[in-house]
Specification:
alpha/beta, Rossmann fold, seven-stranded parallel β-sheet, 8 helices, 44% helix
């Protein structure tokens, strides 16, 4: 599953799971664009220290101008784009509360980042992939949509929308050999998630529901990302791949 000569954009890659994706793609040979509203310097430093190529670009995925500019700069710097991992999302730090206590402002912000951000980055990158004659878009959903986690209605709804977007977009762009798939992690113990006040209790409960009885870590997801980014998955599109240790089966 070599990615030698490929160019990959990973949104939300300044830290956490996105950083793990970026490092894995670089280790497989891709030149990686670390796109984040935060400073992506630490991720770039880790990749370059390991002998890879990376570029940090500031990007607010919920903003059309910002997402378009990010892709344009990526193309200018590396000559094109082959892979997009839509990872940027709101989750860690989101307040857990009954649905009728979620404000309209909280709802709209969640949708702006998790849904509109995914849409805008897809829209920005497809022309560059069309020029390449193929491409891979990997949208990060969540296995939580399969069992309806309570007290996070806005988050769960947004990740369900990502799955729906993936399937519909796959139908539209397949003519250009662009594959669009979604990966659905379970609760994954990134540094930010581990700081969530309820996460230790939630993780312990979820572990008991898994076929593989342990916590999930960012590195558990990178193999699926590499498969979906590589030529090995050239005839796979519109799919929802759950990577949660067997909590969900569908």
């Amino acid at each position: 599953m070599s990615l030698q000569g490929k160019v990959a954009i990973v949104t939300g890659a300044a830290g956490g799971i996105g950083q793990a994706y970026a490092k894995a793609l670089a280790a497989a040979g891709a030149s990686v664009v670390v796109a984040d509203i935060k400073d992506g310097g630490a991720t770039v430093a880790a990749i370059t220290a390991a002998g890879g190529l990376a570029l940090a670009l500031a990007c607010d995925v919920s903003d059309e101008t910002s997402s378009q500019a990010m892709v344009r700069q990526a193309v200018d710097h590396f000559g094109g784009v082959d892979v997009l991992v839509n990872n940027a999302a709101m989750f860690a730090g989101v307040a857990v509360k009954p649905f009728d206590l979620i404000s309209v402002e909280e709802w709209d912000h969640m949708m702006a980042v998790n849904v509109r951000g995914t849409f805008l980055c897809c829209r920005a990158v497809v022309p560059a992939m069309r020029e390449r004659g193929k491409g891979k878009i990997i949208n990060v959903s969540s296995s939580t949509i399969l069992y309806g986690t309570p007290l996070l209605l806005h988050y769960v709804t947004s990740k369900g929308a990502v799955m729906a977007l993936t399937r519909a977009l796959a139908r539209e762009v397949g003519r250009w050999n662009i594959c669009v798939n979604s990966i659905a992690p379970g609760i994954t113990l990134s540094d930010a998630v581990k700081e969530h006040p309820r996460m230790a209790k939630w993780d312990a409960a979820v572990v008991q529901s898994r076929c593989i009885r342990r916590s999930e870590f960012p590195e558990d997801l990178t193999g699926t990302i590499l498969y979906l980014a590589s030529d090995a998955s050239d005839f796979v599109t519109g799919q929802f791949i759950t990577v949660d240790g067997g909590t969900s089966m569908h």
